[in-house]
Amino acid sequence: MIRIENAGKTFPGERGRPSFEALRGVSFDVADGEFVSIIGPSGCGKTTLLRLIHGLEPLSTGAVYSGDRRIDGPSSSSAMIFQQFNLFPWLTVRRNVAFGLEVAKRPPAECVERADHFVKLVGLERFADHYPHELSGGMQQRVGIARALALDPKVLLMDEPFGALDAITREQLQREIADILAQSKKTVIFITHNMDEAIFFSDRILVMGARPGRILEEVRVDLPHPREADAVRASRQFSTLREHLWSLLSGAASQGAAA
């Protein structure tokens, strides 16, 4: 579904400063229907990588493919969900969810029908006519997820979607989104700092190092689906995976600090 080949990104220096190499030689594949998480220390280029995959940033080297098509800019085959909710404050929940469909010039009846379907899917049908400021953080993130799903993308790119939420809301929303994604069967690339979250969701976890950002190791998560968060955390395999990820991240952070 997604193929990244030797991707690199260098940002030019400004005001006499040297250029900055954010990513170097990043290569990996994501299969149809697979959930892949990317974790790494702050500043290792995780969000930059996601923006390259979505076509929001031009590559300096390498290529990104969706199927056989090279990605040179944003397309309807993927949708991105951000940490900050990025909702339009002057639009209702229903209109926020329908916005991408309207931009794509879908028929008005289809926009309403699909918006209502996905508003209901994320459990916000009673709030369809509310505005973002009337919603909690978790509810606003549900709107963002519904908006992305309404476009029916083949690939969901999720950039720390639970990072701005408190711990209780985060865990509750994790469970709900796991159920929604199981129904939608999307291919997902997921950025997170949270090791527990990565293990709970993922089929594979890619661990990145920094300066420049690169893939250090691929870690497979062979826990059976569907997963129940409490049962996952109680398993011996979870503890083993978490300890291994912590070791990799600690080493990557130390190398980054020394660079």
Give a quick set of tags describing it.
259 residues, single chain, four-stranded antiparallel sheet, globular, 10 strands, alpha/beta, six-stranded mixed sheet
DSSP summary, beta strand count:
10
- The order of strands across the largest sheet is 6-7-8-3-9-10
Helices, by number, come to: 8
**How far apart are the first and last residues' alpha carbons, in Å?**
34 Å
Could you explain the architecture of this structure?
It is a single chain. The chain has 259 residues and is of the alpha/beta class. The protein contains eight helices and ten strands. The strands form two sheets. A six-stranded mixed β-sheet has the order 6-7-8-3-9-10, with helices on both faces.
Summarize the structure.
The chain has 259 residues and is α/β, with parallel strands linked by helices. The chain has 8 helices and 10 strands. The model has no long low-confidence stretch (mean pLDDT 88).
Helix and strand topology:
Layout: E1 2-11, E2 20-30, E3 35-39, H1 46-54, E4 61-66, E5 69-70, E6 78-81, H2 93-103, H3 108-121, H4 137-150, E7 155-159, H5 167-184, E8 187-191, H6 195-201, E9 204-209, E10 214-220, H7 229-234, H8 236-258
Parallel strand pairs: 3-8, 3-9, 6-7, 7-8
Antiparallel strand pairs: 1-2, 1-4, 4-5, 9-10
Helix pairs in contact: 2-3, 2-4, 3-4, 4-5
